[in-house]
């Protein structure tokens, strides 16, 4: 059915290549490291010319070691592609330009289904899919091979995955066996082929249909576009390769980790080795179906590996290497950090900055020096922002744009000299704009950034959080050295009193500090709330309880996003008595507030419990105590939505989470797998994990 459909169109395609990016590959030796006839057909029909060299990589990775099914699919795809990329120069005596590897799996109820081994296995798989929605993941790896004069080959790896949701009808026994006896299930992931008879079993498909067939063509073309049109506009991959491999010699970190066999090497990459350490069981990791088809790019640029053709000994280039990995979901792969682009001071999730200075005594490279200086100056920039915000500079310029430094000094009751320095610093940081006037001092205005985030009355104002950073986080970090030496928090040194419970002992026994803290929570909840609230399909839940929901900012985002949901915000009495300060203009009757202590009092009944930025504040012991209370209140099928910064499994990022951990609060930053284990011990199974690409990640768990 599928083949015929394609065949009708392919005559036209023989002469016309629809996606111009496919034409970028003409003249290159493209290799498909897969024997799947369906993948072959999809790519052929798209106008791609390639050789098929099936991978010898045995698909035997331990699924239990991956926290999300797509990670397993991507890793298998990588291994397949790398095995072929490495074998070809030796066995086929030619080096491909590009090797494409792919692996398709089906995931249902936390299980990964690959190809059935026999009819009974097919029956087991198909009956587990009957009447349910499942996810089809295809991991894709693109290996770019760059041959060097000295017979060495550079491998550059880009990987991504696509998820499609498929719902099966209820399948009767007769139907199941009839389908199994047709023989179709045997060589297909999940035991069905959607493009043929298996299509009759399917009620709906959300996302890329071809992904279910075996290859996400649309996402693949977008990746090629990124590689060839955006990253490497000049002289093909030359520039990308150069930028990626530019400057490298700190070989130790790479060279010593490179085993002789590139295939093994990839499986021992930092992230996958961390997965090997993780004991978390495999769970699906997926966004809502509506976002499935276009938000799943996790492209990553891995280090440019060098391998000698003859013996496989790995070697790292002598020049120094600057590498930034990016997993940004919508922006796709992004290479930053070349000479012309600024490195972020705090890399976001997925960005890895490696600046390896050549030899200790060689002349310093400008970008290396710049990076260190930026890190050293970071605190000055923070403090300039805090001070301007505290002195209401952005509010004043909103009300009266075009003040000069003397006028501003008068308004904020400060010295003209100091004000001038502060305003100039803010201009250089991109927070203010200055306009020069003939023979007069310049005048100042807010930049768009300040208008959106720094005014205290902006919808997405971070003013409250900035003040919290200035008054609470700053003093804690000024005692960082003691925190590190002693391994404990520094509340007593920073705030002059002992703290057992940060909230009740420090924040809430002073009205001003309490309001400031609540404003801080409010501002972060406002900017992150929508992404957290829409991270999952919550339509099956009717009542939610936001534990420690503070001002209700997050709760309002949930009711806004889910028309059928009512939310009870549960927080300490000291907080609930202040909520009138934060009520939105258009009061939403679906949000209500209950005062109580979640460690001691009875929790309101709900179908869904929300824990947003709660657990990181507490020790494992306290977390267990809270989770056990929630578990007792929940009935099977109830949900628990957890939102935190999830540390990467290898604890190498995200930087923001690791820096937050430095404040050595009583609690700790944890990875998604660590949260999964904590929750599992109270009968919650992690159903979905979502990196929202905003400040907070999210995880949806179901009580079994
Ligand atoms: C870090 S804030 C997070 C606020 C909110 N969930 C958000 O994401 O914006 C922690 C919240 O937990 C509340 N909290 C702390 N201890 C509590 C307790 N024992 N019972 C109820 N709420 C508590 C605090 O008052 C505060 O509102």
Automatic annotation (TrEMBL):
Residues 239-265, 282-301 have a biased composition (Polar residues). Residues 477-684 form the O-methyltransferase C-terminal domain. Its cofactor is a divalent metal cation. Residues 266-281 have a biased composition (Low complexity). It comes from the Eukaryota. GO terms for molecular function: nucleoside triphosphate diphosphatase activity; O-methyltransferase activity; protein dimerization activity. PANTHER family: BIFUNCTIONAL DTTP/UTP PYROPHOSPHATASE/METHYLTRANSFERASE PROTEIN-RELATED, BIFUNCTIONAL DTTP_UTP PYROPHOSPHATASE_METHYLTRANSFERASE PROTEIN-RELATED. Keywords: Hydrolase, Methyltransferase, S-adenosyl-L-methionine, Transferase. The keyword S-adenosyl-L-methionine applies. This is Acetylserotonin O-methyltransferase-like. One of its GO terms (biological process) is methylation. It holds the Pfam family Dimerisation. Homodimer. Gene3D superfamilies: 3.90.950.10, Vaccinia Virus protein VP39, Winged helix-like DNA-binding domain superfamily/Winged helix DNA-binding domain. Residues 373-456 form the O-methyltransferase dimerisation domain. It comes from Pleuronectes platessa (European plaice).
């Amino acid at each position: 059915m599928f083949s015929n459909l394609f065949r009708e169109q392919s005559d036209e395609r023989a002469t016309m290549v629809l996606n111009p990016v496919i034409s970028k590959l003409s003249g290159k030796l493209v290799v498909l490291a897969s024997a799947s006839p369906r993948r072959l057909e999809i790519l052929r029909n798209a106008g791609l010319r390639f050789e098929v060299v099936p991978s010898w990589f045995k698909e035997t990775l331990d699924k239990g070691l991956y926290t999300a099914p797509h990670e397993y699919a991507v890793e298998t795809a990588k291994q397949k592609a790398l095995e072929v990329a490495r074998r070809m120069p030796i066995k086929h005596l030619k080096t491909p330009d590009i090797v494409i590897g792919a692996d398709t799996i089906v995931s249902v109820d936390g299980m990964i289904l690959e190809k059935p081994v026999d009819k009974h296995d097919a029956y087991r798989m198909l009956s587990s899919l009957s009447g349910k929605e499942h996810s089809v993941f295809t991991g894709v790896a693109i290996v770019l091979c760059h041959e060097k004069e000295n017979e060495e080959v550079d491998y550059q790896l880009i990987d991504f995955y696509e998820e499609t949701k498929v719902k099966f009808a209820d399948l009767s026994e007769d139907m199941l066996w009839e389908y199994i006896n047709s023989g179709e299930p045997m060589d297909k992931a999940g035991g069905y082929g959607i493009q043929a008879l298996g299509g009759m079993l399917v009620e709906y498909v959300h996302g890329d249909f071809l992904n279910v067939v075996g290859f996400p063509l649309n996402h693949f073309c977008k990746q090629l576009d990124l590689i060839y049109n955006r990253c490497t506009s000049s002289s093909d991959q030359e520039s990308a390769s150069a930028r990626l491999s530019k400057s490298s010699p700190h070989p130790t970190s790479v060279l010593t980790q490179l085993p002789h066999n590139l295939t093994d090497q990839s499986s021992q990459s930092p992230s996958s080795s961390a997965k090997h350490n993780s004991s978390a069981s495999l769970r699906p990791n997926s966004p809502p179906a509506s976002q499935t088809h276009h938000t799943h790019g996790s492209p990553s640029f891995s280090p440019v590996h060098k391998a000698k053709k003859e013996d496989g000994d790995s070697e790292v280039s002598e020049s120094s290497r600057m590498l930034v990995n990016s997993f940004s979901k919508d922006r796709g792969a992004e290479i930053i950090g070349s000479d012309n682009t600024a490195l972020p001071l705090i890399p976001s999730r997925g960005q890895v900055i490696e600046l390896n200075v050549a030899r200790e005594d060689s002349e310093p490279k400008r970008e290396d020096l710049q990076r260190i200086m930026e890190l050293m100056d970071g605190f000055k920039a923070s403090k300039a922002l805090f001070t301007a915000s505290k002195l209401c500079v952005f509010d004043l310029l909103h009300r009266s744009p075009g003040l000069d430094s003397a006028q501003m000094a008068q308004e904020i009751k400060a010295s003209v000299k100091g004000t001038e320095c502060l305003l100039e610093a803010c201009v250089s940081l991109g927070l203010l704009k200055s306009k020069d006037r003939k023979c007069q001092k310049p005048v100042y205005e807010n930049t768009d950034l300040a208008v959106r985030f720094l005014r205290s009355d902006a919808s997405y104002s971070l003013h409250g959080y900035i003040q919290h950073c200035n008054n609470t986080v700053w003093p804690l970090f000024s005692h960082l050295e003691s925190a590190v030496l002693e391994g404990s928090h520094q509340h007593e040194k920073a705030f002059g009193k002992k703290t057992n419970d940060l909230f009740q002992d420090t924040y809430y026994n002073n009205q001003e500090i309490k309001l400031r803290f609540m404003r801080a929570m409010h501002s972060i909840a406002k900017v992150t709330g929508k992404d957290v609230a829409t991270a999952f399909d919550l339509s099956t839940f009717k009542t939610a309880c936001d534990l420690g929901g503070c001002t209700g900012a997050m709760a309002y985002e949930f009711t806004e996003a889910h028309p059928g949901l009512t939310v009870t915000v549960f927080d300490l009495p000291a907080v609930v008595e202040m909520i009138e300060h934060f009520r939105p203009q258009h009061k939403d009757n679906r949000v209500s507030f209950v005062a109580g202590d979640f460690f001691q009092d009875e929790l309101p009944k709900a179908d869904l419990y929300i824990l947003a930025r709660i657990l990181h504040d507490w020790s494992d012991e306290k977390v267990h105590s809270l989770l056990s209370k929630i578990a007792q209140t929940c009935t099977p099928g109830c949900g628990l939505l957890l939102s935190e910064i999830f540390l990467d499994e290898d604890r190498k990022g995200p930087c923001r989470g690791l820096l937050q951990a430095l404040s050595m609060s009583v609690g700790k930053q944890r990875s998604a797998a660590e949260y999964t284990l904590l929750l599992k011990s109270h009968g919650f199974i992690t159903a979905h994990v979502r990196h929202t690409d905003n400040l907070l990640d999210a995880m949806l768990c179901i009580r079994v």
